[in-house]
Design brief:
Radius of gyration: 23 Å
Shape: globular
Strand content: 15-25%
Order of helices and strands: EHEEHEHEHEEHEHHEHEEHEHEE
Distance between the termini: 60 Å
Number of strands: 14
Helix content: 25-40%
Strand order of the largest sheet: 2-3-1-4-7-6-5
Length: 369
């Protein structure tokens, strides 16, 4: 079974997701805005779900066609081979979005797509009623410039939900973005990793998972695990291979936060992630943070959404600046960060934390005043 697979991702991460898909041994890979397309069969689908650190989901692209009317949308959806995946009792909720298209009503599009899939399955299975009391096959659609693209979601919960963070701090950093920040810092387990604004511990936990080469999806489930069309043994084999690929070395990672409750939560999350023995968390004021020469600092200080918060964020930047100007990777949404920090970054990269436009400011060498 050869499939066209799609890994949607946060804007700015397309190249990184493309590279990690290639590292899985997949060669048919194409990066586009907000997604990466790749070819493969059930084995590639399984491995992508288990191993992709920076993608949000793994989707099966069912088809794409022009649709500027509900009639064309209905007929286009009806032509797709839904019976190859969805059984008679399968549940198939529909969701999606429309952008710059004639069909702008999301509820109407959902209804038409649902009816078209039902009509296709009625003809294939010779039945008139669907209980939908079986496994879940989430259908996603994207309407952009009157081009409709239909997908089946194999992941279920988004891939950033690793399972170790049932609750988070006030402004949580998405796990996929945290992994990207660690990858961009080139930390792979050597030296010391530090985050002086650790919050719920996402950055040091993702760094520990990367250092150990642990598959980020190892301890969670996926919708496609329950699909009869994907052999169950593939999931077992992929998990066994992932466990055998882990490293067991001593690592030096630590995180700190001025909020003691956040530090306690970070410890709990690290234990759930299975890396509690590798990370040292402590309560400390980041203004007093002084890194050692061999330390890489990857951090996500508070951005400041309101005026008072912005002023506090700027104070933190100024206080941090004299001590940390080497091997620093700092994420900020402040448009004048470099001016406030008092030092121009060696490199910066545009990223999105949810819908918030940010930059990762990278300081490689010594930039002491």
């Amino acid at each position: 079974m050869q499939l066209t697979l799609c890994a949607p991702c946060l804007f700015g991460l397309e190249g990184l997701v493309r590279d990690e898909i290639k590292r899985l041994g997949i060669t048919d890979v194409q990066a586009q805005n907000g997604r990466v397309l790749f070819g493969g069969g059930p084995e590639e689908l399984v491995r992508a779900n288990l191993w992709l650190r920076m993608a949000e989901r793994v989707l099966i692209q069912m088809g794409s066609f022009y649709a500027d009317s509900f009639e064309l949308l209905f007929e286009g959806v009806k032509e797709l081979p839904w019976e190859s995946f969805i059984p008679q009792n399968g549940s198939f909720p529909v969701k999606g979005f429309s952008l710059d298209s004639q069909l702008s009503s999301i509820p109407s599009c959902q209804s038409i797509i649902k009816k078209a899939v039902v009509e296709r399955l009625k003809q294939c299975y010779g039945i008139n009623y669907f209980n939908e009391d079986g496994r879940r096959f989430r259908i996603q659609f994207a309407l952009q410039n009157n081009i409709a693209t239909l997908y089946l979601d194999t992941s279920g919960d988004s891939l950033h939900k690793r399972g170790y963070r049932p609750s988070a701090g006030i402004a949580p950093l998405r796990e996929t973005l945290a992994a990207a920040m660690v990858i961009l810092s080139r930390y792979k387990g050597k030296g010391i990793f530090a985050d002086p604004f650790c919050g719920s511990g996402t950055l040091p936990i993702e760094a520990a998972l990367i250092a150990k080469n642990r598959a980020p999806g190892l301890n969670r489930s996926f919708d496609a695990e329950k699909w009869g069309c994907i052999p169950e043994k593939l999931w077992h084999l992929a998990r066994e291979e992932a466990r055998e690929a882990e490293y067991y070395n001593p690592y030096q990672l630590w995180g700190s936060d001025i909020d003691g409750d956040c530090v306690a939560l970070a410890r709990e999350n690290a234990i759930r992630a299975g890396v509690g023995d590798y990370i040292c968390f402590k309560q400390a004021d980041a203004c007093n943070f002084i890194p050692s020469a061999e330390m890489v600092t990857v951090t996500n200080p508070p951005y400041g959404e309101r005026l008072n918060d912005i002023n506090e964020a700027e104070k933190l930047y100024k206080a941090l600046s004299p001590n940390v100007r080497k091997n620093l990777y700092l994420l900020s949404s402040h448009p004048e960060f470099e001016q406030i920090f008092g030092c121009k970054a060696d490199k910066k990269r545009k990223l999105y934390n949810g819908m918030i436009l940010c930059y990762l400011y990278m300081y490689f060498g010594d930039k002491s005043k």
